[in-house]
Amino acid sequence: MSPFPSPRPASAPRRRSLLASAAGAALLVGCSGGSGSGDPEAGPSAAERARARAARDSEELAARYAAVVAAHPGLAERLGPLREEVVRHAEAFGGARAGSPTASATGTASAASPSVSARAAGPGDGSGDVPADEKDALALLVRAERDLADRRARALLEVPGELARLLASVAAAGAAHVFLLTEG
What we know:
single chain, 0% strand, elongated
């Protein structure tokens, strides 16, 4: 505190304080969330669509892992932790929790041949067919992980900060999955 008293009364606000407050209020109003139009019927924002797409992609990838495990039960121990991480990614993007790989995979595997059960457990886009050879099945997962990680990395520029950080993190995890699937 200054040893000299101020010439103006203590209760009067300073001009700089008023200008700073007005600028701060304008920034806060301009930074509010939403689609920007304020119209609730305008549909989901680009970020919401990107988040839903990322959740759906992770759910499809988890189904692909389940299909491979159903067709090749010997890979269950190796693929289980990777699939569980993909399920957590789907949840982080707002997707629904998928069933356990053993429950969904073994339930269909016992009733049908491996290729039929793998097709039933795969994603709805028809790409759920699992090769009969384990090495080829792993290569299928490697391609799916790599393609998804690349797509997510490209999407980083189109989404806001927090979602971009989540996409980057999950894309990096996908790249690590590619490494783990090709190792050994």
